């Protein structure tokens, strides 16, 4: 209980934690995802991932992750940058910690999960076909939890 | 993909694809269409509000009621509705779920400068949801919770002298309700639940200003505006039947976003048909607590009697026509009283009935 109260004290300043994502952020310090401790290599893309609407509960309770993915899809003939399809699969295989059916469906995310790429609705960005760039920010927000 | 321009202002970059219309809009046009549509819902025809009305926003700390509190505060200023707004929260007594979201409501109180009242199941019924679940198990907890919440909101509102309760039910919730009522064979309820505003003589007026607002847009709005809300699942797994309806709806929406509005329209059509036929049970007041009821005992009193008698989920079957004698040692719900007479309408109605 004491912990909850302390959290709320910090949230009294809306600038600190009102993230519009439905979780109480303690500080803006980057959560260190498993792969973020490793320095990004030349041939990798750095992608910032954020989970809202309760989705972070499926990802080791951490809302923010910095991940590094190869800048070309491995074992593929396509000389292309990884797309959102690749990212969703990567997240399922590398970052998802529980209840996979709550996140993915087929090779996409479950209906009811909103995706924003650099703050734009992914429906305007080509959804699964969007080609990722270094430094992209991708936000996943579940609409399925508590009103 | 090259960024596409907003289809309304044609200058800024489009950031949202509107599910209702397929329009691509920029952030500021999105705010403006979203807010204007809610304003239109509120003011269409006679409008749902009167100047000077005391309005309580049923606030859970979740996305819908938080966006509702924000938007109503804003529209009340922008269009000078002249409303006296309050936040009204119900504490069901669910450890680890409601505690956190109530903290969020307290923060909203500060952010929007609205007075807040929190009323708990514990103070009202002498039972928390935690204890109810302990006794009745995890199958029918939502039935208890739903009946108790509805009454708790009315009672909280009555204590504040509130004229009107607004809740954050959105278009997706409405469509889900249509499906649920159809799948339960409850067409009578379908009609009532589709109304933008409901009012019967002894209950407090209730409205759903977000009735036509898509969940997606509510979530986007909260995200872009960085509103403070809390998103979590109730630890007592909600109704599985409802869960399936929800997923089904989201699947339909993914294929054709207008499905949501189409289902609502279907539901509304049932209303018209239904207003022709009557046959709903006549309403009276609960002999024990004075709350509106179609039986001698209201649902909450009947459920409470079952709980107090130590019944498990058979408490659900507790009759509503029992004698009004309370078994010894049982708790009862305090009498429901509305301190402030139902303002002008009530008086007008009274005058009319005298004239007859
Ligand atoms: S899921 Fe059921 S028990 Fe939990 S808050 Fe909602 S109605 Fe109550
Ligand atoms: Zn615009
Ligand atoms: Zn009663």
UniProtKB/TrEMBL annotation, chain A:
GO biological process per UniProt: protein urmylation; tRNA thio-modification; tRNA wobble uridine modification
Record location of the Glycyl lysine isopeptide (Gly-Lys) (interchain with K-? in acceptor proteins) cross-link: 147
Organism for this UniProt entry: Tremella mesenterica (Jelly fungus)
Gene: URM1
InterPro entries according to UniProt: Beta-grasp_dom_sf (IPR012675), Mopterin_synth/thiamin_S_b (IPR016155), Urm1 (IPR015221)
Pfam families: Urm1 (PF09138)
Location(s), subcellular: Cytoplasm
Source species taxonomy: Eukaryota, Fungi, Dikarya, Basidiomycota, Agaricomycotina
Function: Acts as a sulfur carrier required for 2-thiolation of mcm(5)S(2)U at tRNA wobble positions of cytosolic tRNA(Lys), tRNA(Glu) and tRNA(Gln). Serves as sulfur donor in tRNA 2-thiolation reaction by being thiocarboxylated (-COSH) at its C-terminus by the MOCS3 homolog UBA4. The sulfur is then transferred to tRNA to form 2-thiolation of mcm(5)S(2)U. Prior mcm(5) tRNA modification by the elongator complex is required for 2-thiolation. Also acts as a ubiquitin-like protein (UBL) that is covalently conjugated via an isopeptide bond to lysine residues of target proteins such as AHP1.
Associated pathway: tRNA modification; 5-methoxycarbonylmethyl-2-thiouridine-tRNA biosynthesis
Family: Belongs to the URM1 family.
Source organism, top-level taxon: Eukaryota
Any one GO CC term of the record: cytosol
Name of protein: Ubiquitin-related modifier 1
Keywords: Cytoplasm, Isopeptide bond, tRNA processing, Ubl conjugation pathway
TrEMBL record, chain B:
Residues annotated as domain Cytoplasmic tRNA 2-thiolation protein 1 C-terminal: 284-310
One Gene Ontology cellular component: mitochondrion
Gene3D superfamilies per UniProt: HUPs
Compartment(s) of residence: Cytoplasm
Pathway where it operates: tRNA modification; 5-methoxycarbonylmethyl-2-thiouridine-tRNA biosynthesis
Record InterPro entries: CTU1-like_ATP-bd (IPR056369), CTU1_C (IPR032442), Ncs6/Tuc1/Ctu1 (IPR000541), Rossmann-like_a/b/a_fold (IPR014729), TilS/TtcA_N (IPR011063), tRNA_thiolation_TtcA_Ctu1 (IPR035107)
Pfam families tied to this protein: ATP_bind_3, zn-ribbon_14
Domain tRNA(Ile)-lysidine/2-thiocytidine synthase N-terminal: 54-232
Keywords: ATP-binding, Cytoplasm, Nucleotide-binding, RNA-binding, Transferase, tRNA processing, tRNA-binding
One record GO biological process: tRNA wobble position uridine thiolation
Top-level division of the source organism's lineage: Eukaryota
Residues engaged in binding ATP: 58-60, 64, 90, 168, 173
Regions annotated as coiled coil: none
Catalytic activity, EC: 2.7.7.-
Gene Ontology molecular-function annotations: ATP binding; nucleotidyltransferase activity; tRNA binding
PANTHER family from the UniProt entry: ATPASES OF THE PP SUPERFAMILY-RELATED (PTHR11807), CYTOPLASMIC TRNA 2-THIOLATION PROTEIN 1 (PTHR11807:SF12)
Family per similarity comment: Belongs to the TtcA family. CTU1/NCS6/ATPBD3 subfamily.
Known function: Plays a central role in 2-thiolation of mcm(5)S(2)U at tRNA wobble positions of tRNA(Lys), tRNA(Glu) and tRNA(Gln). Directly binds tRNAs and probably acts by catalyzing adenylation of tRNAs, an intermediate required for 2-thiolation. It is unclear whether it acts as a sulfurtransferase that transfers sulfur from thiocarboxylated URM1 onto the uridine of tRNAs at wobble position. Prior mcm(5) tRNA modification by the elongator complex is required for 2-thiolation. May also be involved in protein urmylation.
Protein name (Swiss-Prot/TrEMBL): Cytoplasmic tRNA 2-thiolation protein 1
Organism: Tremella mesenterica (Jelly fungus)
Lineage: Eukaryota, Fungi, Dikarya, Basidiomycota, Agaricomycotina
